[in-house]
């Protein structure tokens, strides 16, 4: 069969740039480790440029709002590109999407992970022109442990600024926290109470995700875990935050995490800066979070907070 069709050219081409080193901190043994990000955006047709020496007509290289995706994995480390396929809708919506790897709990103890997240934010600002980023419009989003780091970055405190590009700000303008374990100490209490159950996966506090994150003397891990509790950093500098959490999450129960953070924000008089969606029957990172309707909620939130004054 031979047939002429007219597909049009409304949808723009996505480009992925991988393994960009954004910071070089030390691991727990004092050895330098390269932290990398991938960047996905609409900035023309790269293979077309290589093959024929020209780009798509009408390609737009103007600065775009950026979103930094922070993976989960219990702070134990997750491939930065594991969920990248789910991020294409955000790039198609006109965002530069940077997905990062940060030090795992085996490579660095708290607050190493927050130092890395803030280094990634500063890197994007320092290299805004190269990656077509509007440095005044940067948001963060992440799932599970990444949601915790995104929510903590959203507090826009002056803490945890170490490393490269310190002349640039690490503050963000919007955040989506997807079922983040933001109440690290409270979740640790829940886990400690289960140690007597022979079928529970952990039997020592240092074995838990939170315990591995905090590290150090096991006798003081619970006491020191409060330093990683997002709610303790709620302050007027906090950027707008969207919270998504399932009501059937057995790993990070909503009442022990997002409910606590949301109530702290409300008590601080900033409920108008937060929208909290509880996903019915959703578990910990189950497919409900990646439905088109939920992504539309997320994109609408980011558009309102990162694009509104551009419209």
Question: Can you offer a commentary on this structure?
Answer:
The radius of gyration is 20 Å and the shape is globular. An 8-stranded mixed beta sheet has the order 1-2-4-3-5-6-7-8, sandwiched between helices. Helix 3 crosses helix 4. The protein contains 9 helices and 8 strands. The protein is α/β, with parallel strands linked by helices.
What does the secondary structure layout of this molecule look like, with pairings?
Elements: E1 15-23, E2 35-41, H1 46-52, E3 64-70, H2 88-92, E4 96-100, H3 112-126, E5 133-143, H4 145-153, E6 174-178, H5 184-192, H6 209-214, H7 221-224, E7 241-246, H8 258-267, E8 274-279, H9 292-307
Parallel strand pairs: 3-4, 3-5, 5-6, 6-7, 7-8
Antiparallel strand pairs: 1-2, 2-4
Largest sheet, in brief, is:
8 strands, mixed
**What's the gyration radius in Å?**
20 Å
Helix segment tally: 9
Structural class: alpha/beta
Low-confidence stretches: none
State the end-to-end distance: 45 Å
Helix content, binned percent:
25-40%
> What is the 3D shape?
globular
Strand order of the largest sheet: 1-2-4-3-5-6-7-8
Q: Can you give the mean pLDDT?
A: 94
Sequence of secondary-structure elements:
EEHEHEHEHEHHHEHEH
Number of strands: 8
Could you write a compact summary of the structure shown?
The protein is an alpha/beta fold and 311 residues long.
Please describe the structure with a list of short key phrases separated by commas or semicolons.
single chain; 311 residues; alpha/beta; 8-stranded mixed sheet; 9 helices; 8 strands; 18% strand; globular
């Amino acid at each position: 069969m031979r047939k002429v069709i007219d597909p049009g050219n409304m949808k723009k081409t996505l480009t992925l740039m991988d393994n960009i080193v954004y910071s070089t901190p030390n691991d727990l043994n004092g050895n330098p480790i390269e932290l990398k990000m991938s960047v996905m955006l609409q900035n023309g047709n790269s293979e077309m440029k290589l093959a024929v020496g020209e780009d798509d007509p009408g390609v737009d290289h103007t600065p775009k709002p950026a979103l930094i995706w922070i993976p989960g994995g219990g702070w134990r480390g997750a491939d930065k590109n594991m969920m990248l396929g789910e991020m294409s809708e955000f790039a198609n919506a006109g965002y530069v999407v940077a997905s990062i790897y940060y030090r795992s709990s085996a490579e660095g103890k708290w607050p190493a992970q927050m130092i890395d997240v803030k280094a990634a934010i500063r890197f994007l600002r320092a290299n805004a022109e190269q990656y077509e980023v509007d440095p005044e419009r940067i948001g963060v989003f992440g799932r599970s442990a990444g949601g915790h780091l995104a929510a903590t970055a959203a507090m826009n405190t002056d803490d945890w600024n170490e490393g490269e590009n310190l002349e640039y700000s690490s503050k963000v303008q919007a955040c989506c926290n997807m079922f983040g374990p933001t109440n690290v100490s409270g979740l640790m209490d829940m886990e400690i109470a289960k140690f007597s159950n022979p079928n529970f996966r952990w039997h020592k506090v240092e074995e838990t995700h939170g315990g591995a994150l905090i590290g150090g003397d096991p006798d003081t891990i619970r006491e020191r875990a409060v330093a990683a509790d997002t709610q303790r950093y709620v302050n007027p500098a906090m950027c707008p935050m969207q919270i998504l959490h399932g009501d059937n999450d057995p790993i990070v129960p909503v009442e022990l995490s997002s409910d606590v953070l949301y109530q702290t924000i409300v008590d601080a008089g900033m409920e108008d800066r937060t929208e909290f969606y509880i996903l019915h029957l959703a578990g910990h990172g189950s497919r409900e979070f990646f439905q088109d309707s939920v992504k539309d909620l997320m994109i609408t939130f980011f558009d309102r907070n990162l694009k509104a004054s551009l419209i």
